[in-house]
Amino acid sequence: MKIKDSQFIISAVKPHQYPEDALPEIALAGRSNVGKSSLINKMIMRKNLARTSSQPGKTQQLNYYRVNDMVYFVDFPGYGYAKVSKTQREQFGEMIETYLREREPLKLQLLVIDVRHEPSKDDVLMYQWLKHYEIPTCIVATKADKIPRSKWDKHIKMIKTALEADPRDSVVLFSSETGLGRDQLWDVITDAIGY
Ligand code: GTP
Ligand code: MG
């Protein structure tokens, strides 16, 4: 994928702020700090377009980035941050569930997991939601550069088992540090948006 243009569009708090041009959307969910924003930056080859939040758990918006007038990346707030209040957690759940249920342009959900660790309860719950709403999903196991190559297979297997992953869902091993998996993930994305 040749990136000609990428722009930050909006931090949307309410559905009426979501873009209305009906371009396909690729959304990213995952734990706080797992590397969602870094993944977007790597995909579009920009160092710092997707903001890495200094206050984890505070941001409750969906951040929209448009690439080549072709697709949006939609960066979800990270979940699982301990200091988040119950009210915030509920708001997060509501916003994400509404988005997954109603957002017509959503073509693919990336579930971003740290390849080093067993998926959390929240990861499993998120994956079950995606299955429940029949959202096409790609599991992205990121930070691959943090474990030796010899362990990649074992860790991918551990993640698939913990999530009870649907064998039809693609799994991409990724690193925002080295660019591993970038081309493969672009293939999955262009497939999903019929490009
Ligand atoms: P929230 O927005 O708080 O939910 O976090 P996030 O999921 O957007 O994570 P972010 O991209 O901000 O990355 C968190 C930290 O992990 C940063 O210090 C990144 O530099 C680091 N990081 C992200 N991806 C990778 C990776 O593939 N390899 C390595 N080594 N570090 C990574
Ligand atoms: Mg982020």
UniProtKB/TrEMBL annotation:
Pfam families: MMR_HSR1. It comes from the Bacteria. GO terms for biological process: division septum assembly. PROSITE patterns: G_ENGB. Its cofactor is Mg(2+). CDD domains: YihA_EngB. GO terms for cellular component: cytosol. GO terms for molecular function: GTP binding; metal ion binding. Residues 22-195 form the EngB-type G domain. Keywords: Cell cycle, Cell division, GTP-binding, Magnesium, Metal-binding, Nucleotide-binding, Septation. Belongs to the TRAFAC class TrmE-Era-EngA-EngB-Septin-like GTPase superfamily. EngB GTPase family. PANTHER family: ENGB-TYPE G DOMAIN-CONTAINING PROTEIN, MSS1/TRME-RELATED GTP-BINDING PROTEIN. HAMAP family: GTPase_EngB. Necessary for normal cell division and for the maintenance of normal septation. This is Probable GTP-binding protein EngB. The lineage of its organism: Bacteria, Bacillati, Bacillota, Bacilli, Bacillales. The gene is engB.
